[in-house]
Amino acid sequence: MKILVVGGGGREHALVWKIAQSPLVKKVYCAPGNPGTAGLAENLPIRADEVGKLLEFAWNEGIDLTVVGPEQPLSLGIVDTFENHDLKIFGPHQQAALIEGSKAFSKDLMRKYNVPTAAYGVFSDIGEAEAFIDRTGLPIVIKADGLAAGKGVIIAQTRQEAVDTVTDMLSGNAFGSAGSRVVIEEFLTGEEASFLAITDGKNIIPLASAQDHKAIFDGDQGPNTGGMGAYSPAPVVTREIHEIAMRDVLRPTVDGMAAEGRPYRGVLYAGLMVKDGKVKTLEFNARFGDPECQPLLMRMKSDIVPLLLAAASGDISGMDIEWHDRAAVCVVMAAEGYPGEYRKGDAISGLADAAKLDDVYVFHAGTAQDGGRCVTNGGRVLGVTAMDDTVEQAIARAYQAASVISWPGVQFRTDIGRKAIGR
Q1: Residue 342 pLDDT
Q2: Which of 332, 248, 339, 347 lies closest to 295 in space, CA to CA?
Q3: Which helix (H) or strand (E) holds 272?
């Protein structure tokens, strides 16, 4: 088979890495890819949002399966476009990808189909939003309705901060058109978990549990990012919590999407808040999480390609996923200043030394090739991922690898996975 992976970040590097291991696969292409994928696949000079060019390549090259990494091409309707040309593609259709593309749609769907979630309101008027803030109390969560690269969520601690955030979003200053409507929610407490599943629109196969770390600094302090690290399995997802998530979150959502005439096919990612044996849904994503994808695929023992192909064909019944019993941890190394303004072009040292360590893989997220040097080219630069018998040992192995990689101003959290050890 010839497979095309769309995207150029850490998640896509992990997908290319896993797909390339399949005995079914002859050649992998990645568009646009990065210096990490270049060693495993042929990178293409096509951006992930250039749907027409991607279609032309897949058609001319006879691509057997396209796997979409990021949310943007899904929201642009890449799946619909490819299927209209009889090309197999893994991911939800445009109308189904709205579950991530619009926070308001997602919240309304949860309310309609009794999926547990936080109380909320949807606003495009600042005065009405202020009134809701006053009724709900602080702290309060404010989300841009549209796609904001995982960063369109602000937890406001004061009334002034909440009003300023709403004003900034609705005026288009903060997130452009993504913030032309805002969702305001009650603040939930507890421990977050990432619950991912592959579905064909009817059948659901859950992936192993994982936990992301959104805040930039240790102790979940500072502004939200696209994710500063992740680990799997997540002990907060006990067998009971797993059953609740499948019964009360995944099943009614998949059935609800089908009832709405938007059958959902692909990866469905539910961000959960777990507290006192109860689960509430924070949000849905229409693709693999980044960085959750990295430790999950490292732990996946099964060949991923038959599963992706079956989901793209619309029937995963009778399939299952086998997992390594070991734990995996991903530590994201980021550029100085991220998630705000950050510098690009700094030379990265130590990649070859990290690659020599056993059970360690360094996934590239925001890198570029500059002559013979690998340089920083994004906010989140690398996902240093390691596997070992226990979470504690995997954490130590990941940080051992991270310690040999450096560039000017590198930053990373030092507490990824600590909650797992606490449990």
Answers
A1: 96
A2: 332
A3: strand 266-275
Beta bridge partners of 179: none
Q: Which positions ≥6 away from 23 have C-beta within 8 Å?
A: 303
pTM tops 0.90, yes or no: yes
CB neighbourhood size of 314 (10 A): 12
**CATH homologous superfamily of 327-418:** Phosphoribosylglycinamide synthetase, C-terminal domain (3.90.600.10)
**287 three-class SS:** coil
What is the four-CA torsion angle of 316, 283, 296, 14, rounded to 10 degrees? 90
Token couple for 386: 């390691």
Given CATH 3.30.470.20, say whether it is the number of domain 191-313.
yes
Tokens for 45, please give them: 């000079």
What are the sequence ranges of the domains in the chain? 2-91, 119-186, 191-313, 327-418
Q: How many CB atoms lie within 10 A of CB 415?
A: 15
Q: Which of 274, 267, 405, 269 is nearest to 331 (CA)?
A: 405
Residues of the chain with pLDDT under 70: 148-151, 172-179
Q: Domain 119-186: which CATH class?
A: alpha beta
Write down the pLDDT at residue 176: 64
Phi, psi values for residue 20, rounded to 5°: -65, -20
Please tell me whether residue 34 adopts helix, strand or coil conformation.
Answer: coil
End-to-end Cα separation, the chain, in angstroms: 43
Distance of CA 174 to CAs 101, 143, 151, 303, Å? 17, 11, 10, 41
Cα distances (Å, whole numbers) of residue 379 to 78, 255, 367: 26, 37, 9
327 by DSSP, 3-state: which?
strand
